[in-house]
Write a structure and sequence with these properties.
- The protein has helices at residues 19-32, 40-46, 51-59, 66-80, 91-99, and strands spanning 6-10, 16-17, 86-87, 103-107.
- The protein folds into two domains: 1-18 and 85-109; 19-84, DNA polymerase, domain 1, CATH 1.10.150.
- The chain starts with 5 loop residues before the first strand and ends with a strand.
- α1 (19-32) crosses α4 (66-80) and α3 (51-59) packs across α4 (66-80).
- The chain is elongated, with a radius of gyration of 17 Å.
- It is α+β, with helices and mostly antiparallel strands and 109 residues long.
- The protein has five helices and four strands, in the order ββααααβαβ.
């Protein structure tokens, strides 16, 4: 069997803790729509399947707001995605250790 030469990571939720920025962006959008805020733990449950799926879950019975929410959320998140985002604890040390032995890459949507 060939030796592993490269390791590829996902970015959001693997290398970077983006939950606080995503939650803030969700709650900003909900505020603009005059809807109640949601808890960070709820947002975490809905992550991993894209923005549309996130909003379908957040809005539940209020799907009529879906397109409006996405139109506000995506640009707001793009502008505010690096405010609270940080590497997970120990990630930088791990990457330092791995980079001498492996080629490292990141794949993200």
């Amino acid at each position: 069997m060939d030796k592993i030469k490269a390791i590829i990571f996902d970015l959001d939720g693997t290398l970077l803790d983006t939950l606080d920025d995503i939650t803030n962006s969700v709650n900003y959008t909900l505020e603009q729509l005059k809807l109640p805020h949601v808890d960070k733990l709820l947002v975490r449950q809905y992550l991993g399947h894209g923005a549309k799926r996130l909003w379908q879950s957040v809005l539940k019975e209020q799907q009529s707001y879906l397109n409006q929410a996405l139109d506000m959320y995506i640009p707001y998140l793009e502008k505010n995605s690096k405010v609270l985002t940080k590497p997970y604890e120990g990630i930088m040390d791990l990457l330092q250790q791995l980079k001498g032995t492996y080629q490292l890459g990141v794949v993200s949507n």
